[in-house]
Amino acid sequence: MTTTYQPHLSFRRYRQIGKDSPILTVNASILKQPTPLHAKYAMDDDDGASEALSLGDALHKAVLEPDAFDNHFDDYYMWSPTKGLDTKAAIEARMMNPDKILLTPDMVDKIKWMRDAIYRHKLAAHLLAKCDQRELSGVAADKDLGVVRKIRVDACQGIGTEGEEWSPYLVDIKTTRNLIDFRKDIRNFNYDIQAAFYLDTDAMITGRARSSFIFIAVSNTPPYCARLYGLVPEQIDKARDIYKRRLAALATAFLERSWTAFEDESEPVAIAL
Length: 273
Fold this sequence. Notes:
It contains twelve helices and nine strands. By secondary structure, the protein is of the alpha/beta class. It has a domain of 182 residues: Lambda Exonuclease, Chain A (Alpha-Beta Complex). A four-stranded mixed β-sheet has the order 1-5-6-2. A three-stranded mixed β-sheet has the order 7-8-9. Helix 4 crosses helix 8. The chain is globular, with a radius of gyration of 19 Å. The mean pLDDT is 93.
């Protein structure tokens, strides 16, 4: 597989990259799992149909491609026949329209409120305005481990073309219930592992290293507002060590078809309450 960025690829098509490949294809979500067995379960159980994923896809479209969301909504989305996305009618509608994502009117209202909150934040709006590359799907061949990496970059400036404008950061949009103390989300959802994996994979694709990863966090409950967060270099380095160990273990498990968890631990885990 060619190491490159693929612009204008839908989120659904991005999720399909590597699905039928004999080579292991790894994204950051898989590397957030603590063991190869957990990672395999996550890969096998990933159908991309949850309400959270649908909401996230649509929010990114609304923020990063507002014209597509506002003026070409029907090209990407369709209205759910019910208020929930897990009903029989909604599941049937999704099966009949596999290239579109189901949304409800309540979800769309929330998406617009969150988008407004992001663009009310002056620095967030400024960073996004500078980022001419948005919703980039990237793949990189990791020849050392014999796997393919894939990333979905929300926004940046520059993809390695000679003479282009370049940003030293990648931008990622996250929804949260914990805007004031977003570090809890970073810890609970392993966003630091995502940041390190994205920065390294982006460098493999572009041939240039970026120095920082910026989260635009937006609250998904009223009052809707946004803040920016960045990881210190030491935290990125720590997360890099973790994801590299997990990636190596996952590559070995895939090659040997041996999906282990904690079976080789030699002593009990010490707990202090």
